[in-house]
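Re: that backbone. Tokens:
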């Protein structure tokens, strides 16, 4: 009979423990791999969600779940019109690579994105009739901002160090300030309108490529654009004062309409590439634009009742369209004007304005290239007749009470009138006289003159010949 030894007892125990450890290790490894697989699968699912082209959020719980999975969203985030809750909170979302849109909801009162620093596309808040505040205080990168039809919106928080944007539209809000865009230097489009409490607008913007429109905000809005140098269309309306002291180029049209300003300072403006319109500025009595040389479109100066002396274009030599002055002005001067490519009309209620003094130089230098040239005033006195040499048609400027009228124009070197028709220059409306008829009379006169001259030469030549014999 064999006795049990230590080896006989311990060895099997050691073998059993090793086998048990092996099995346990494999089981643990399997569970770890299974957990890793689940985690990887979950991560993959989250990545797919974060890369969706668009997320349409209907309730706050959906937004909370999205924020847990995605700190960065690669598509658009849209709060739909079905959203019925008062608060929109983006929680931990830091970046939206597409657009962020909240629109067409009457229930949303507040929008909060405490960690959001980037919107790759548009930030749109539209048709939110209950919205009071929007807090995106860390937002420092965004291409476009459009806040439209937000009648109760009073508070907006955005990082004010943004320097460049494509588009800024702020319309129909209760904002009192737009300081959050105070450091913008460049944009393609800026439109600020119909914000009834917005009494001061101050921007450091230097260049607007497409259009800059500011109008219908608080009464007598103070608009400060001291750094603006170049813009496309520029339209300012319903302002009490504004600063455009460094503006040099308007690359489209300029509209200064229905403002209560007393002075318009455009002293550094050099060129307007479209039409210039200064209309219905009832208190305006002074304009400074001494460096402006080109207006490539038309020029309209209408119903500025306090503007009596129209001498604010001393350097302009080219106007590419028609000119229309209408009001109560006493004097107009264009000392360096060389050409008006359209027609010209000057209508004033003044009893001091003399159409002859203005238009004589126009006729003599052939400044007007368009079809019509008219002038009307209430000056009283005797008829004034101006005769020119034979290469020009005589014209008459009539005062109130006169009953006669003639037309005026300047013939080109070949004897043809530059204009198809010439309108009388008169203080009362006159009929247009056809330039063709005037031309026919001149041609007939020239033909008869040539015939008489030829006869004199033929008789004089034989006489001189016989005298030399």
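Recovered sequence:
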């Amino acid at each position: 009979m064999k006795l049990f030894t230590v080896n006989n007892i311990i060895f099997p125990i050691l073998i059993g423990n090793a086998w048990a450890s092996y099995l346990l290790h494999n089981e643990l490894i399997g569970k770890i791999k299974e957990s890793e697989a689940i985690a990887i699968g979950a991560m993959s699912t989250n990545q797919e969600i974060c890369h969706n082209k668009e997320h349409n959020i209907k309730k706050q719980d959906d937004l909370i779940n999205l924020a847990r999975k995605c700190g960065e969203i690669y598509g658009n985030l849209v709060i739909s019109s079905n959203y019925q809750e008062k608060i929109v909170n983006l929680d931990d979302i830091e970046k939206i690579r597409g657009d962020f849109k909240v629109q067409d909801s009457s229930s949303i009162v507040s929008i909060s994105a405490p960690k959001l620093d980037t919107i790759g596309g548009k930030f749109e808040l539209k048709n939110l009739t209950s919205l009071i505040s929007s807090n995106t205080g860390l937002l420092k990168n965004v291409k476009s901002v459009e806040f439209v039809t937000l009648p109760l919106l009073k508070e907006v928080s955005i990082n004010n160090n943004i320097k460049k944007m494509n588009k800024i539209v702020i319309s129909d809000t209760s904002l009192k300030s737009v300081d959050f865009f105070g450091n913008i230097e460049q944009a393609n489009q800026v439109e600020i309108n119909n914000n009834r409490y917005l009494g001061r607008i101050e921007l450091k913007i230097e260049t607007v490529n497409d259009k800059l429109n500011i109008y219908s905000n608080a009464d007598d809005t103070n608009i400060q654009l001291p750094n603006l140098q170049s813009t496309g269309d520029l339209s300012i309306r319903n302002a009490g004062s504004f600063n455009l002291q460094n503006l040099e180029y308007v690359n489209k049209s300029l509209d200064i309409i229905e403002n209560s300003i007393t002075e318009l300072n455009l002293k550094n403006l050099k060129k307007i590439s479209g039409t210039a319109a200064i209309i219905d500025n009832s208190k305006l009595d002074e304009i400074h634009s001494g460096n402006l040389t080109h207006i490539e479109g038309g020029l309209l100066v209408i119903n500025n009742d306090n503007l009596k002396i129209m001498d604010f274009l001393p350097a302009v030599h080219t106007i590419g369209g028609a000119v229309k002055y209408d009001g109560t002005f006493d004097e107009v001067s264009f000392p360096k004007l060389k050409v008006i490519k359209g027609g010209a009309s000057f209508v004033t209620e003044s009893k001091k304005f003399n159409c002859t003094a203005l238009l004589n130089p126009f006729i003599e230098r052939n400044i007007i290239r368009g079809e019509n040239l008219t002038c009307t005033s209430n000056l009283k006195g005797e008829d004034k007749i101006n005769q020119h040499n034979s290469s020009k048609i005589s014209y008459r400027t009539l005062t109130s009470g006169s009953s006669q009228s003639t037309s005026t124009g300047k013939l080109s070197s070949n004897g043809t009138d530059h204009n198809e028709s010439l309108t009388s220059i008169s203080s009362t409306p006159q009929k247009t006289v056809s330039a063709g008829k005037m031309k026919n009379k001149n041609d007939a006169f020239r033909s008869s003159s040539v015939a008489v001259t030829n006869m004199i030469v033929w008789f004089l030549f034989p006489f001189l010949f016989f005298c030399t014999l």
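The chain is about 20% helix and 35% strand. Residues 370-461 form one domain.
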